[in-house]
Structure formats: C-alpha cells, structure tokens
Amino acid sequence: MQTQDITQKEEKQYTTLNLGPTHPATHGIFQNVLKMDGEIVMDTEQTIGYIHRAFEKLGEHKPFYQVTTLTDRLNYCSSPINNMGWHMTMEKLIKAELPKRVEYMRVIIMELSRISDHLVCNSVIGVDTGAMTVFLYIFQWREFIYEIFEEICGARLTTNIGRIGGFERDFSETAWKKIRHFVKEYPKGLKEFENLLMRNRIFMDRTIGCGPISAERALNFSFSGPNLRAAGVDYDVRVTNPYSSYQDFEFAIPLGTQGDTYDRFMVREHEMWESLKIITQALEKLDKLEDKNTFHAEVPEFYLPPKEEVYNDMEALIYHFKIVMGETDVPKGEVYHCVEGGNGELGFYLISDGGRQPFRLHFRRPCFIYYQGYPEMIRGGYLSDAILTMSSMNVIAGELDA
Amino acid sequence: MNMEKPTLEQISNSLKEKFGDSILSQTQEYDFPVLVIKKESLFQIVRFLYDDERFQFRYLTTFCGLHYPDSSQPFGIMVQLHSLVHNIRIRFKSFTTLKDLEFDSLTPIFSAVNWMEREAFDFYGIRFKGHPNLKRILNVEDMDYHPMRKEYPVEDATRVDKDDTMFGRKSSGYDREKLMSGKQ
Asked: What ranges do the domains of chain B cover?
C-alpha cells in the first residue's frame, strides 16, 4: 500500500471565481472568469455579447432615420451624443451645411450629455468604494439634465433627439430657462460632490494606484476618451477633428499621469467643469448671434416638414412620405465620422450604395475596444480593485455588445 | 527626429516605392484617403506605417469586415489608422474570395485589433492567420452561420404572414445557395 507523502511540495493551486454575468457590482452584464491566488487576481477570461442586438445587421435594413433609434441604445448614458453623431454622419454624406445657431445648440446638448455621463460614472466609483451618499446627492443633477432633454425632445434616456439637419423644433422658453438655471446652480452641486470625494483620504487610498495602465499600452489597446487621457495622452476628437463648431470654443483637455482609477475619476471631474465652460460660451455666442430662430438646415429632402404643412401643402406632403418611406436619394460613397462620446471616440462608418438603407454600417464603439485592456489592468491586484477598475473605465454594456 | 507633418502624397509615394504593385487603387472618400491593397501585403504595409518615424501611424481607429456579394472578390476588411502625432487618418481596404477567406492577423502590431478580428470572424467568417484566440465573440459559440453576410435575411425568411416590402424590410435579394457555393 502506498501512502501519500504529505511533506512533498504541492503545486500552487488557484481558485476559479465566476464573476457575473449578472453580478450587481459590475453594473451591467459582464462575465469574468477570474483565476485567483487567494485574494489576488492572476488572470481573467472575459465573455461578452449577452445583450447583443445585431445593430449593424439591423442598420442595413432600416431607412436612415430609423438608425437613430439604434444609436440611442449604444451608450445610453449619453444618447444625445450618439444621435447627433449619426445625424452628422448623414450630413457629411449629403454635404449639408448647418447654420451656426444649430451647431451651438447641438454643442449645448452634447456637453450636457457628457456631464450626465461622467456624473454617473464618477458617482458609481463612489458607490463601489462604499460612499453611497455622493451618488444620491449628485443624481438630482442628472435628473435635472434629463428634464432638459425631456423639455426639448420629449424623451429622457433614449432620446432620439434631433433630425438630419438640426432639431425637430426650437428650444422652448422653459428649456432655455432650465439650461441657464443648470449652468448657474450645478457648480454648487459639483463642488459639494468634489468636497465629499476628491481629497477624501479613504477614497484616495482606495483609488490611487488601482487598475493602472501606461500610456503606451493604452495607445496599443486603442483607448480613447477619458481613459486614454487619464494615461496622459491628449487625444480628444473635439480638438483633433473638430465638428459642430467646436473650434470656436476655448476649453482645456484635462490629463492624468498614472492611468489609474483616481486619474480617470479626476479627468472626468475636470471635464465636467470644461463642459460647463463650453455651455456658458455657447450661451454667450447664441446671445450674440443675430439669428434667433433657425433650428435646422435647409435640407427638405431629409428634414421632416412641420405637421401643419404636411396637411396643407402638397410639396411638404410628398417630402414627408418620401422621408418616412425612405425614398429620398442619397449619394453613393463611404463616410466615417467620429465624435467625442461620453467614453471615447464614437465613430460611424457608413457605406451608401444610393439605396434607402445603409449598405454597410459599422459603429466604432469605444467600450468594445478598450474593455480588451481590462485583464492587463487588474492582473496582480485585489478582487475589489478589479470591480473598481471596471466601474472607473465606464464600460457600458449596451455599447460593448451593440 | 523630423516632426514635420508629411503630406498625403509623401505617404502614398513612399508606399508605392516600397510596395509598388500591392496598391491597387487610391481614392479620396470625403475627408478620408482610401487605399485598396492586396491582402498579401496588408500586414507589411501596416507594419511599415507603424514603424516609420516620419509617419507614426500607431493608433488603430477601427477595423471591420465587409461583404460585397456582387464583386469578384466579395469579402474584405477595412482598417483605419491614425497618426496621432501628425493627426492624419488613412483607410485601407483589402479583398478576397470565399475560397481564400483568410487575412494576416494584425494582432502582433495592435493589441486592440484582437476583438475586432474576432468580430469579423464571428459575423463574416473571415479567418485571421496568427490570431491568438480566434473564436466567436458576440454570438453564441454553436451558431453555424455568419450573420452579417448579405445572403442572411434579418428576419426569418420562411415567414409568409407578413408582407413588409414597403417598410424597408425587403429580403436581401441575393441567392443564398449561389453565394454559399462561392460561384459568381
């Protein structure tokens, strides 16, 4: 009979831990099969695609206007940016020129969405470090931004805002009042938020050095947005390839150095201030503009005519039907247009064969690209840091899986 | 280091000089220069643009599969590179046939392309030589077709209770059997 020699050196044993797909701490449907050495993460295998809805395939079967509703559901924390990114892609394809007033109005809405996006991400970092209060305090401001969206387009989360060529209607008095109120009052809320977290010893100990990535690796992983800037690379689409008159505005690009959770938090924090600056400038510029009424470009073949005209005017009725049925001619060609979305470069690659639907539509989804860097960032850290790293990367399941 | 911004002409000239007949065409599509290249030299060209100190195309913007069923080389890929130093963007396209549905993987150059190549494999069935982990990414593993190919309808093609031709839901119009067999 053989007895086992218990003094023999054992091979190192790892634990496999299944995190997700529906773990409450990951804020979305992500599966990570972690290889653990005690509390230390050695490696992870990511599974994605749980909420894949075949947007690219659906896009090939929908008239151009109906694609807007698909973009809503990419990064749903800042859907107006996605909607407008898509509209701008179409405008580039049909070579439409937009009036300055429309572009400034768009800038206001896009910066408001950026604030609401960053605000969710940053307050959720707070929640994951155990500071629930900040999340609850700051959320009244996200609620307020959604009220502004509701006033402008009637929807809150999946906004479907705007049209090809501008907005469906001019902003109401109430909307302007609310935007001005936001610009005036929000700094107080943001200051309070910062006071609770920014120099909080516990928060700093928890986030500094957590989930870092070097600038070189971040570039190789094609990071974009706040995650790339936290690693120290000053790439911002609003500056490198300005769209919607961003070249008219003065703003800074906040940069981090370590690429860790604290830097990502701080970059988003400062970007919210910069966004506020942009909105203030846009309001000033709008006041100075002589044009006070234009809210869309003159593109009758793509811009839905007002309902009264549809009922009373033959031409408007024809355009209405042509647009709704997707019978307007579009040029052949391929366009790529990118905007600085809430979490990075959001690109639309559209091949048009002149038909009523896109021949090929590809979304460059920043989440999908930078989530690949996640295993490298959490390797060698604690499990709780892995959770924190994920929420600080702002991975949105809708965008990840498209 | 020479940090002067190279013109598009300089880039395409040095590419032509080095890779000559690999460049099949060069066009300007809106604000983007588009180069159609032979698939054999795709990897070499991307490597060259990455390494060359004058150009430094070290950021991969996006990558996706393409399917033009009416072309003699129906399957293709699209790669967009960005030189962040000079802020120049460039797009490459490369095509192949159904029989020879394989490209060189760009993963040795860009880590970011890993999932994008898996996506192209998942949706178009394009294989990538040298990819470390080429398996489906967004669809379930046991799926037996590649859904973004043009012959696959977006809805169940066997349904007869709906006539949606007027609502942008017409069938792709491509003969599935013919496309699957790879004949033109």
From this structure: 8-149
